[in-house]
Structures are given as C-alpha cells and as structure tokens.
Amino acid sequence: MTRRGFSLLEVIVVCALMGFVMGGVFLLFRMGTRGFSRAVSESGAVGELQRATRVIQRDLRLTHFLSASDRQREVTTSDGKVERDGLAVAGLANWADPSNFEVGTELPKWNRWILFYADGEDKGRLHRLEIQRSRNAKGSYYPLVPLGDLSSYMTSDPVQQEVALRVSTLCYQLRSFGVEIDPYKRLLRLTVRLNKDGVKRMTSEQRVQDSLEARFEISPMNSYPEI
Fold first, then answer.
1. Extended beta strands in 39-141, E state
2. How many domains does the chain have?
3. Distance (Å, rounded) from C-alpha 39 to C-alpha 154?
4. Full residue range of the structural domain in which residue 183 is found
5. Can the peptide bond before residue 158 be classed as cis, meaning omega within 30 degrees of 0?
6. Which of 30, 160, 198, 222 is least surrounded by Cβ atoms within 10 Å, i.e. has the fewest?
C-alpha cells in the first residue's frame, strides 16, 4: 500500500484550524480570568462600603439630633468636583458602662464627639475620629451645643490630631461623601460613593471605571428630651 503524505494545502488548513481552536481557548481563558478579577474587585468594594455604612449608621442612631453639625466642602480630583463633607455628633465612650449615664434621669453623659469626614486626596479616605467632650462650667454635659470649626479637624493625616482619642479609616477608595442635616424632619442624610478598581473588559484592553454608592437617612434615637 502506498502512503500518501500531506499536501501543503492540507497542512495549512490543519494549522489554521489548530490556531483557531487555540485562540478560542485563550480568549475563553482571558474572559474567565478578567471576569474573576472583576468579581473580586466588586466584592471587595461592596464589603468596604457595607462596613463603613454599618459604623456610621450605628453612631448616628445612638446620638442626639441637636448635637449634629456639618462642614460642606467640594474638592477637585481626577473625577472632577466632588463632595468631601464632614459630620460631627455627640457620643459616649462606652454605651455598656453605667457610669456614662446620669444618676436618676439615666440621660447619656455625652463625653465624646464622633467626627466622620472625607479627606481631600485624589484617592479619598473616609475617617472616623473620637474627640473628648468635656463638661461645661456648671459641671454638666447639657445643654448640647454642636461642635464648631469642623474644618480644623478635617486633615489628610488624622493620626497627627492630638485631640483625637481614637482614629479609624472606614474607606480607602472614596470618591465622595455628602452630608445633609434636615432640621424640619430631624433627619441626617448621607451619601457615600466609592471608586471600584478599574479592571479590563473581558473582550478588550479597555479598563472599566465604575463606582458604588450608598444613600441613607437616619433619625437619631436619643433626641429627647431636647436639652
């Protein structure tokens, strides 16, 4: 029996088919890895946003509305002009400690200021500061007077603030932080927006820039009596 070798055309066709198959496999692999990277990036951003909003909502629910003060400011970043506000409310050093409540009335001894603010960096961060709130000249924590001059505390490096008893950073990919105090409905409205890490599209080299946003409003629970 005579063996016939492959013709040049057959070799070209086979190589083309193999190249097509390998290209398809590579494309599917690239789409899968980019899809996974995008899912991981989104999961991280969602987790960071959820953790930050839980902390903010907890402190705002426990405060007194009359203690709230804000500082509105707008900064220019690579995303354009964005809100980088600040909000201060009264709080307690430890809500589980009975000594932090007045004897008889059981009113909170508001011995802390809780300050949330966004710094002015291009990749913004959302910070939480605890500041000592002292008694007034009569030895009382009442009446409640909002914290003044918030801008003096809203620095890029809160750790350097000597008055800060505790500092934590809630977000590291902050785009904007907006605050609104509604005196008529006695609500605190906040908007937190994060940048998600840019990942390439599954079918191209273009990077996708996206953001996550949380909007919520809080009615402080300890706003009565109004003193």
1. 69-71, 74-77, 80-83, 86-91, 112-118, 124-132
2. 1
3. 33
4. 22-199+207-218
5. no
6. 160
Compute the distance between CA of residue 177 and CA of residue 119 in angstroms, rounded to an integer. Answer: 10
| Total Cβ atoms within 10 A of residue 20 | 10
Q: Which residues, 6+ apart, have CB-to-CB distance to 125 below 8 Å? A: 118, 119, 169, 171, 172, 174
Reference 69, options 26, 11, 133, 9; nearest CA is 133
**Do residues 197 and 212 touch, judged by C-beta distance below 8 A?**
no
User: In sequence order, which residues have a C-beta less than 8 Å from that of residue 5 and are 6 or more positions away?
Assistant: none
In whole angstroms, give the CA distance from residue 124 to residue 128: 13
Q: What is the largest CA-CA distance in the chain?
A: 115
Structural domain contains residue 178:
yes
Residue 14 and residue 21 in contact, taking contact as beta carbons nearer than 8 Å? no
Quick check: is 68 in a domain? yes
Of 72, 61, 23, 37, whose CA–CA distance to 177 is shortest?
A: 72
- The span from the CA of 124 to the CA of 77, in Å, is 9
**pLDDT tens digits for the chain (227 residues)?**
555 555 666 667 667 777 777 766 666 655 545 444 454 445 567 889 999 999 999 999 999 999 999 999 999 998 899 999 999 999 999 999 999 999 988 999 999 999 999 999 999 999 999 999 999 888 899 989 999 999 999 999 998 888 999 999 999 999 999 999 999 999 999 999 998 764 445 455 544 467 899 999 999 999 877 76
In the block, residue with structure tokens 């400011």: 73
